Amino acid sequence: MKKNYRNMGALIVLTGLLASGTAFSQEKAVADTIRVKAISEEPKSNRNVMLNAAKTNEPREVNIGLPASVGGTTVLENGLPVVYYYWPEFSSKAWRQDVMINKNQLLDLGQTAIKIGDVGFSVSTFDNLGTDMFQGTGRLNSNHFGLLRGDINLSGPLNKKRLKFSAGAYLNFDPGTFEAKGMPKYYSDKTQMYKGALTQDYSFSGGTGSISALYKYINTEGLRNSYAPFIYKKGGKIEEVEGFRMGRDSYYENTGKITVKDAYTGEYETRDLTKDTGTDSHTLDLIWKNKLNNGLHLNMISRFHAAKVGTYYLSMTGVSATGNDKYTYADTGEAYTGNSVQGVLALTGKKRPVKTSMTNIEVGKKSGNHEWNIGFNEWYYSMDKYIAEGVIYYHEIAPNPRKLIKTGSNVDKYGNLPGGIDYHNGSENKTALYITDKWDIADAFTLTLGAKLEYQNLRGDYQDRALNLDNLNGSKTKIKEDWLNKAFMLSAVYRMTDSFGLLGEASYNETGGNLDNFTVGTNPNIKQSSIPGGGFGAYFNHPMISLVSKATFIQRDEYRAAPTFTNPNDPSDIRRDITNYEIQTLGWTTDIVATPFKGFNLHLLVTIQSPKYKNFDGKVTFADGTTAEYNYSDKSVTGISKILLEIDPSYTWRDLRVWASARYFGKRYLNKPNTFELEDRWETFAGASYKLNKCLNFNVTVVNLLNQFGASGSIPGGDLITTAEAAEAKYNTVMSGSYMRPFTVEFGLKYNF
Q: Quick one: which of 514, 476, 511 has its CA closest to 381?
């Protein structure tokens, strides 16, 4: 397991990536060099992005002062996103960090905006497409909970005519950290992936080139998130519920199945939460590269991706006191005697076809003081009738909980209340032209510029929920949306001395919407979202210390979300409405890499930021006629800490390397009115690796040394609790949410031959 990195500034280019290497380069690196190193082609430089405290199979979210994407950090493979859009196919359903990947890059906000049109940082990975000499790499990993993970890559020449091959396999069997009754052993993640590539190198009178074909098959199933109940105390402190161990007991309903009414036939279907919601996908990449004798390069990649994607989404809608209500167990009918019940909204969808085609063409050259690139993107995505049927139900507060039925409620024969139907159907298309240029105006001054113009459209249909149907047999409303998105970036480095200089950055990005915005059955009236950002700071470089400090700003309008509101008079009355709002963040980040003596490296990162909601108000109406108005403008954004700290020491002696990493997150707010908070927390890691010989390496990593909960969750109706007096009534009550991985010891070996 590799060590960690978090870039906390909105636009900052941090030397923190270098801290994950065995030693910081002793050359006189100016800030421009720091930028180049930050997107180094060496896999080591970005390895800590994969150190995730919550999940084992995804890159961690890199903070930019805006709420983390539901889909996580954008992942690219061979220059293109592994999925067009994260829902319903997350990146982890189409990609894994296997040993066939031989190069990583971390793209900052500006590069991500120009190249792929996303907001945030992105991880770009590249496969081994073939080698001139035969070689192989194998890796085995496990942990004390029983994880089994192995992958292998073989590559070499096929003939003397410069035809090369590469083949890889990846298998992952993750039992999670608890035994989930009613589910298979490897409920957390069960994945198999196979890849094969052929590359033909060639020469011609004007230069050299290669053409490659890469095929990838992946089959994956598993539950993405885990939840637990806990007691919420004053000051945001968390205590375990008696009889329930967070991270060691299952909070999934104990049958491992869910019964829903098919949205078209009206027949009830029982679905397995893992097997019926997995994903199978096939991907073909065609990669063409040319380097001309005059220095010009011409590259093209085309990807064809076809998948059948299942869906399972679980939302803990809140824990409610039983009060005067009576509940019985759904399986036996016996009375429930507990004091609280857990409300759950579950959405599940059968495997549906997703098809994507993407092409990128890029030409560029270093001409005098300019290093320019011109690129063209043509991306097409289609979703054939995305459907997820929803149910609402209750279960007990206990390990492997049993389903409950509220006496007098209008449940179906399986103990469920209707939870709505998510549906959209159609296609999306993006056509873009972009240009970038790195301009060395003088020895002391460098400008990096970029611009993109993108045409985006949506075509399809959705079913208006105003029809008040419990099926999808009603008339459909057409989707026809078009946008012209623009993006710009500018960064400047002014080297005032050999060791000191100034940094400045500015960016602007526009994005349209997605078919997913129509899923809940209302017209979201999508408007183009604008994301301006900027930063200004200074750097200092010395053989023993490198420092970057920068003030940052980022803002985004036209955020679109479907928050879940709970009726304050009836916890079973849940409303999901599309809302639009803005977020604005000011911050200051300082990043330090110190190498005080040979073999020792220390990385420190401090961020102070203030993310605020803007223009966020509205009204929600529930089924019983209850209405509630809300106004969250100028409130702190939920889930984002204002103070962040990262400490990463490492020491290398001969063939042994030991390291540690600690990330501090200040208090966060649980609800949008900011009347509930969660106390600060640490994410802690440590590890060691030993190179036995030139072929064999051993490693061990400890996750969550302090065994903290790192909980996050929701208060029933919390977004409508606006006063401190009302919030006090929730102290010492049971709530539920997600949490960090518990204390885990991981170990592995890697063999090169």
A: 514
| Burial (CB count within 10 angstroms: exposed 0-12, middle 13-18, buried 19+), residue 443 | exposed
- H-helix or E-strand spanning residue 113: helix 109-115
**Residue holding tokens 């059955």?**
521
Which tokens is 309 given?
């994607």
Tens digit of pLDDT for each residue in 117-161?
Answer: 888 788 899 999 999 999 999 999 999 999 999 999 999 999 988
Beta bridge pairs of residue 662: 647, 684
User: Given its phi and psi angles, is residue 675 left (phi above 0), alpha (psi -120 to 50 degrees) or beta?
Assistant: alpha
- How close are the terminal C-alpha atoms of the chain, in Å? 21
Question: In sequence order, what DSSP letters do the residues of 158-174 get, joined into one string?
Answer: SSTTSEEEEEEEEEEEE
Round to whole Å and give the CA distance between 585 and 520: 29
CA 463 from centre of chain: 29
Question: ∠ CA(47), CA(52), CA(56), 5° rounding?
Answer: 100
509: phi then psi, degrees, rounded to nearest 5: -140, 145
Q: What is the CA radius of gyration of the chain?
A: 26
The tens digit of pLDDT for each residue in 267-322 reads 999 999 999 999 999 999 999 999 999 999 999 999 999 999 999 988 888 888 88
Matching residue, tokens 């949506």: 458
| pTM greater than 0.90 (yes/no) | no
10 Å CB burial of residue 319 (0-12, 13-18, 19+) is: buried
How many C-beta atoms lie closer than 10 Å to residue 194's C-beta? 14
Cβ proximity of 49 and 106 under 8 Å: yes
Amino acid symbol at 177? T
Closest CA to 359 of 69, 46, 80, 647: 80
Question: Distance (Å, rounded) from C-alpha 735 to C-alpha 716?
Answer: 8
Q: Name the pairing type of β-strands 74-77 and 122-127.
A: parallel
Q: Which of 425, 482, 479, 427 is nearest to 456 (CA)?
A: 482
Residue 37 DSSP label: H
Distance CA 231, CA 215 (A): 49
